[in-house]
Amino acid sequence: MGSLMSYLFSGRIGAEHMNDPSLDIPDPKTNLTPRQKMVIRDTWALVQKDLRTNGIDLFIELFKAHPSYQKQFKSFADVPFDQLKENKKVQAHALNVMYAVTALVDNLDDVECLQEMLLKTGQNHRRHSVSVDQFENLSAVLVNVLAAKLGPTFTPFARSAWIEVLEIISTTVAETLNPETPS
What we know:
Elements: H1 2-8, H2 34-47, H3 51-65, H4 88-106, H5 111-126, H6 132-150, H7 156-177
Helix pairs in contact: 2-7, 3-4, 3-6, 5-7, 6-7
C-alpha cells in the first residue's frame, strides 16, 4: 500500500505530509478535498497514456450496457457493434469525449471555468436530446472502465472521489439538459 500511495502522490506531497489534515478540507464550492482532486488527477494521468483506446473502450462498454444509445449518434448509429472499434467516427468522438474529461480534470481548481465548461457540455448534449439519466449512465460506465483499466490502482478512495466528481458533473450538466427543472 505504501508504494501505491507513493506512486499516486509522487511529486505532489512527500510522505511527511500524507497525514496533513488540510488535504481533507473540502472546497466550499465543489465539496472535493485536495486529496480527492489529487487522486482524480493521478488516476486520469494513467488513462491519458492511451486516450484513443481508453475512449473507444468507454464507448464500447457504454453501448454494451445501453445498446439503444448508439442510435443517438447519427454518424455511427448503424455501424455493426463488432466494427465500432475500427470506425474512425467512433474513434474521433471517443477522443473528443476524453479530451473534454481531461479539460474538466485540469480545471478542478477553477470552479467558475469548470462550471462554464459543464454548462456548455449540457447545452451541446441537449441539442441531441440526451437525458440526465443517459449522462448518469455514462458516468457509471466510466467508473467501471476506470476500475477495469486501472486495476488495484483504482482504490476504493479513488472510486469514491470519481463518483463524487461525476455527481458534480451530472448535476451541473443537468441544469442545461433540464433548464425548466428547479434546482
